[in-house]
Design goal:
Elements (H helix, E strand, L loop, with lengths): L6 E5 L6 H12 L11 H5 L9 E5 L9 H18 L10 H16 L3 E6 L3 H4 L5 H15 L1 H4 L4 E8 L3 H6 L6 E3 L14 H18 L4 H12 L13 H10 L12 H11 L9 E4 H5 L10 H7 L4 E4 L5 E5 L3 H15 L4 H17 L2 H13 L3 H8 L3 E3 L2 E3 L1 H16 L3 E8 L2 E8 L4 E8 L4 H10 L10 E8 L4 E6 L1
Parallel strand pairs: 1-4, 1-5, 2-3, 3-4, 13-14
Antiparallel strand pairs: 6-8, 7-8, 9-10, 11-12, 12-13, 14-15
Helix pairs in contact: 3-4, 4-6, 9-10, 12-15, 15-19, 16-17
């Protein structure tokens, strides 16, 4: 990358090491050889023709976005002035946002007589803050377009350019003047550039992981299997699978399987998005998307389809497609799936943390005691929390999911029960394939499996139970308890069950 000198554009979700990568480039171009001892980059720094150069690093995540456009402009100018002060560069007075970056680049070159390395971290942060306010988003996009186009006019002063962010959508509108930008976000050569690979876990962390396994009273093999299930699975090029480093390292320290990544930000932002769009967690699993979905997303995030927004934010990841030129979307791992489900339970279903905890306690009590009556009561309390207009909206459409049709109410109820269970930390799968069909829900508690089939009245709970028996859904689980549920679409309650 350094030798070619292109303009590189690189997108990854939060907490994947984009800022650390920016810091690495900054230290490299500053010639801080002591930081790279024993690494391949040490060879680059030891070349006879290598010369350190000034580095302009802009962290756009520090831009203020909560007090209007004037404050936003002043905040960007403040970042430019801070960099100039650090480089001991005097800028022209009365700078406008449109020429601030160009002036900083030119004055830095004139002072040091060396071409500059430009590193822009979180380029889209000022813009993504307004994804649900189209007018503001367009205004901010215009400001950023004027700001960043100075990169093109200052190319003669620049030796290397690296730009990161969390979305590709803004790139089209913001960098329209940069016609020679190289997007490496989905290039398989850079698929493992940020994040941790499984090989790296075994190579660098085995002693720590062995200590964790001993502490958690698990075998090393069982621990690694569970870590992979919980934190692996992020895929940005369709080929390489990665662990989120933030979640893995926190797990290593706390020795508990918790949902670390989503707690670092955007939870309210994402919950509001799910609620506004009336989305369920299940509707995106297994979705087929053409490669244009990856390489040419919409230019505006505020009009992007939900699957594009969730993919670019890291909540959905790539899997091999079922036909040529296509990919499959899925949640990266258990951590993300459970986190999304928890958000849906809290916000889309209008519950609060206190009641959610109460639901969780009742649910675990019912599963522990294998009390079907208490389990049904917990489910009914959840169904009673679904807003009336969400049911009405779903009931007006036919649902076709994964190749077969179901009633809208059955689809919504099943999706909400799945989200509820996952959000509470229960190990549950939906639409579990057998050689005879699909089981609606399979819950695993460690001691017992619950195989559940859901019907809407006038179909009965006995019919649901008989479907499990006839299609042998419980065959893979010798200790299974099988349960048929019948939901009254008018009352939106489970009124019959058979076990």
């Amino acid at each position: 990358m350094i030798d070619s000198g292109n303009i590189y554009f690189f997108v990854r979700p939060r907490r994947f090491g984009k800022s650390l990568t920016c810091s690495t480039f900054e230290a490299l171009f500053q010639g801080r050889k002591e930081l790279f001892k024993g690494l391949y980059a040490e060879e680059y720094l030891s070349r006879p023709d290598f010369k350190p150069c000034p580095v302009i690093r802009l962290d756009m995540s520090g831009v203020a976005t909560c007090e209007g456009l004037d404050t936003l402009k002043k905040s960007i100018l403040g970042i430019i002035n801070s960099v100039a002060e650090r480089l001991n560069v005097e800028l022209r007075e009365g700078l406008l946002i449109a020429n601030a970056l160009g002036n900083l680049i030119e004055r830095t070159y004139l002072k040091y007589g060396e071409r500059i390395a430009l590193v822009v971290d979180e380029y889209d942060c000022p813009y993504t803050s307004f994804f649900n306010k189209p007018d503001m988003a367009e205004a901010v996009r215009g400001i950023l377009r004027d700001f960043y186009k100075q990169i093109k006019t200052s190319e003669q002063y620049l030796r290397f350019i690296f730009i990161t962010g969390i979305t590709k959508t803004a790139k089209m509108g913001v960098f329209s003047a940069l016609n020679n930008i190289t997007d490496i976000s989905v290039d398989e050569h850079y698929g493992e550039m940020c994040g941790l690979t499984e090989t790296e876990l075994y190579t660098y962390f085995t002693p720590h992981l062995e200590a964790v396994a001993q502490k958690m009273e698990m075998s090393f093999e069982d621990l690694m299997t569970k870590i992979k299930h919980y934190y692996n699975g992020f895929c940005f090029d369709g080929k390489h699978y990665l662990y989120n480093p933030y979640s893995f390292l926190l797990f290593l320290g706390q020795k508990r399987f918790l949902n670390y990544w989503i707690s670092t930000g955007t939870s309210k932002f994402l919950a509001d998005y799910l609620k506004e769009k009336k989305l369920t967690v299940e509707q995106f699993k297994g979705m087929q998307v053409h490669e244009d979905f990856i390489f040419n997303p919409p230019a505006e995030i505020e009009i992007a389809p939900p699957e594009s927004f969730l993919y670019q934010s890291g909540y959905l990841s790539l899997r091999p497609g079922t036909r040529k030129w296509f990919y499959t979307l899925d949640y990266p791992n258990t951590e993300v799936l459970n986190s999304m489900s928890s958000l849906l339970t809290q916000n889309l279903l209008c519950t609060q943390n206190e009641s959610e905890n109460h639901y969780r306690n009742d649910l675990f009590y019912a599963l522990e005691k294998e009390s079907i009556e208490d389990l049904v009561e917990a489910f009914n309390r959840l169904l009673a929390s679904i807003p009336h207009n969400d049911f009405d909206g779903a009931a007006k459409q036919d649902i076709k999911h994964k190749g077969y049709k179901m009633t809208a109410q059955e689809w919504l109820c099943r999706s909400c029960l799945l989200a509820f269970l996952r959000g509470c930390g229960v190990f549950v799968s939906g639409e579990v394939q057998t050689n005879r069909g699909r089981a609606d829900l399979v819950i695993e508690t460690g001691e017992r499996h619950f195989v559940i089939e859901i019907k809407m009245l006038p179909q009965t709970a006995k019919q649901a139970l008989q479907q499990i028996i006839d299609n042998n859904y419980a065959a893979p689980y010798p200790n299974a308890k099988i349960l048929g549920l019948a939901i009254d679409g008018e009352k939106r309650q489970i009124t019959e069950w058979a076990v």
